[in-house]
Amino acid sequence: MATDYYAVLGVPRDASQDQIKKAFRRLARELHPDVNPDPKTQERFKEINAAYEVLSDPQKKQVYDLGGDPNAGPGGGGAGGFGAGFGNFSDIMDAFFGTASQRGPRSRTRRGQDAMIRLDVELSEAAFGTTKDIQVDTAVVCTTCSGEGAAPGTSAQTCDMCRGRGEVSQVTRSFLGQVMTSRPCPQCQGFGTVVPTPCPECAGDGRIRSRRTLTVKIPAGVDNGTRIQLAGEGEVGPGGGPAGDLYVEIHELPHPVFQRRGDDMHCTVTIPMTAAALGTKVPLETLDGLEEVDIRPGTQSGQSIPLHQRGVTHLRGGGRGDLIVHVEVTTPTKLDPEQEELLRRLSKLRGEERPIGEFKPGQQGLFSRLKDAFNGR
Questions:
Q1: Binding site per annotation, positions
Q2: For residue range 130-163, what is the model confidence (pLDDT) as tens digits?
Q3: Is 207 in contact with 237 (CB distance < 8 Å)?
Q4: N or C: which end of the chain has fewer CB within 10 A?
């Protein structure tokens, strides 16, 4: 009976290449002869290697899935041998010794980090947009060494330990024979070069901190938490590398009269009951200037009067929100004798000397309304 390679690696038949590779590496570390010298373990190790050789090769895997012999034909080796039977040699090395290091020296020049600052704006500035100057403290290219990191008149030199390769090799012995592994050079930290005389201004980093003034355009309609991206205005990278981005986060300051809700603005005007009954006009200083709010006769406490297109500009698209004026009617608490007499005469004329009152449901508190909403009433 043919060997079930999927069962050998412990993966389903529809396993992806990534799942197959992970299963092989896990088993290879567990069954490595240096870890477990049991002869049965070595036979098991050969089995998982043979299984991985087939399942990691798309062509052999296809032949195997169709019931054919994946090791037949030109170039096909034995199922359990070492050498060609080890499949992808780099995967074996990764399983035993960890992921191989990247070949070649590392670059001293790297991209800088992004930065973010918070900017306070007034409601009118958020509504109509504005331009502001901001000061930022970020890393900039060192003017003394121009980002090279070496003192003026000097330069970086090739590392004499790794000869500029950025890595050193080490030969170890294993059951496979001599195995060569590489690691970053400890003298140059993998850069391939060393700086004998670092720049005294930046200490070899190629950048220094500096305060700059930038002009930021605030678009109309921004709100709390809106972030404006300034590309390339963040931190300069090590070695004078390209700068990251600067993000300006908007914080809208509270307004003494208006409260913003989305692109609409709300305010409350308090008027006496006589003005509510007879009607009046109340001056209001809006973001667009002085306007009069028309209080119609018979206005009740809690009514709203919309002033269209007097709110915040829509950030995306044209138009503006509305300004909603909420009316609050006050009842006098202290009356002189003449005022009391006038009110009594008014109540008599209106037949309201002993009002019965009208009771009806629906005047509930917030929590009662929420409870009814959840109960489906």
A1: 142, 145, 159, 162, 185, 188, 199, 202
A2: 999 999 999 999 999 999 999 999 999 999 988 8
A3: yes
A4: N
